[in-house]
Amino acid sequence: IRGEDVFLIQSTNPPSENLMELLLMLDAAKRASAKTVTAVIPYFGYSRQDRKDKPRVPISARMILDLIAAVGVDRMITMDLHSPQIQGFTNVPFDNLYSRIVLFNRLKKYNLNFDSGVVLAPDVGSAKMSQAYAKKLGLGFALIDKRRPTHNVAKVVNLVGELKNKKVFIIDDMIDTAGTICNAAVTAMENGAQSVIAIATHPVLSGQAIERLEKSPIQTVIVSDTILMPKEKIFNKLEIVSIAEIFAETIKRINSGESVSSLFK
């Protein structure tokens, strides 16, 4: 690989083992005199911890980026960061890609319009992403006001928007314990929704997530393959959409000096 442009692809779930493997491979590539080394990280672990929101906690996203930068990486590529602002934690060029290109095409098959379908943001944090889907698909938009009384526990406080007799798409960047998305689905059905479909980029599916999703009123769970899904995590409602084409085109454009942002216009 001496003198070559190297792209190392490694998702980070589970984060501990995979992050260490990524760091070692990046270091090996730099020491082998690669011309440039790009870390391609479809799922960026620890991206949710982007600030010190209480005493005696780390800013994990910053620490991970510091480690990757210390290896001497030339560029990073990831997808649908939970907190896009963490790109400012490092001076390394950082491309945050969007899964919506392939997910839009999947959702268009439902052939819905403003009167028959609505995109529901399960919390304020996912509102911007959900609004982008609603605008592109020509659907209505609704928002849930969610509070977290304790870590990884979500509680619905209020609903803004009309869901009665409509097919609902719940959009989020990831499904972790599935508490947020399942609570949103229950709220949607209680408010007269016709059906509920959940869409997320990163299927973390930790703890009792699968059990919650199977018992929930969610009809279908559509996710991407940014995280490798072992057989024990595959369940009947799950549908996996490949985002390999987006990463392939991005790598091609970077390697040939073309625009990456124009891919998402």
Automatic annotation (TrEMBL):
Residues 1-72 form the Ribose-phosphate pyrophosphokinase N-terminal domain. Keywords: ATP-binding, Kinase, Magnesium, Metal-binding, Nucleotide biosynthesis, Nucleotide-binding, Transferase. One of its GO terms (molecular function) is magnesium ion binding. GO terms for biological process: 5-phosphoribose 1-diphosphate biosynthetic process; purine nucleotide biosynthetic process. One of its GO terms (cellular component) is cytoplasm. Its EC number is 2.7.6.1. The keyword Metal-binding applies. It catalyses: D-ribose 5-phosphate + ATP = 5-phospho-alpha-D-ribose 1-diphosphate + AMP + H(+). This is ribose-phosphate diphosphokinase. It comes from marine metagenome.
